[in-house]
Amino acid sequence: MSTNKETPTDDDVVNIFSNLSVLPDIERHLQLLYRPFTCFVNTKCVYDLHALFEVLGNSRYEPDKHSALFVQRVYPVCNLTIYANGNIFCKAYSRDGARDGLSKFEEILELLGYTPAFYNFQYNVVNATFCVPFPLDLEWLKLESYANIISDKSQPFLFHIMPKTGIKFAIFPTGFVYVLGCRQPNETNDAIAFIMPILYRFKAETKRSQQDLSLSLGDISSSLHWEGEFQKEQDFAMTW
Fold it and tell me: What molecular functions are annotated in GO for this chain (predicted)?
């Protein structure tokens, strides 16, 4: 069996989920990365992590390696990260699943004698990132899709709204794209399938080499910076 990595055709990429046999090649080609659905809350409690570890099943506490207690739950399926200062993160297969995971854990904490404050839930904004292997003409995109575009000249990107949803795409001229505001995995895939043909319509003229472009698109520090900005800045906050 051949183990060569294939470069997918443009048609394969535009119809990204139509042929699952080439999907791994497409994901690699686009550097497509999904984010787990995460819900966070500061419970205004101080926890004895060692004591919790002693009574909670499917838990791991190694204070010499990490300051948190890790707990796996099956109803709903989720992973909890608990810090002594009251911060708790829950990762699950959907936004609602992450919220439910925290709510179920609240009941356990109350049975153990804690009085946690479970409100002001926060969710991760970015659900996936990828980059098309060419730069994009954002001015042309704004002209053609103005009804679905939010842009600010002071920012190096624009938002493209997916109609009739709360989903947005932060699109950079380098071809890097953030998918924001999804609630479950199928929404993330539907969003990617929606935006891909649009991106391939608005290729920009470029004389840059493929290697230079790849390095630009794969700038990890830059992508992490903007992911943090989308998460924390009020101007970029999603309306849940």
Answer: DNA binding
